[in-house]
Amino acid sequence: MKANEAVIIQSAVRMNSTIVLVGILGFVASFAFSLGSVMWVLFSEIFPNRIRGVCMSVMGVVNSGVSWVVQFIFPWELSHLGNAGTFLAYAVFAGICLALLAWLLSETRGRSLEQREHDLAIGVA
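Below the sequence we write its predicted structure tokens.
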């Protein structure tokens, strides 16, 4: 693996930096325009008014912390699990999270904040 690292680093040095910058900015813009904003809308609907600000702040910190952990361990995952294993692990986690959300999160469309707060307080999904 060490022999390949030198080749990868040398290839990265020769990359067109404009293409890399456009790719990164395109990814960030696409995420912010689509799934990135869904989290904030969801949090504004599921937390009661009296604790909404605190809960959204805590969830923002948790989101940033998880993002940092993913960025920190990603190179290690690539070197120890390989490309397929790394992305398979992320796919499995995403599938588990999707199943948990579908099971635990109730529909909020057409219901008042008070109705949703009551349902969440008594555990109705």
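The mean pLDDT is 82.
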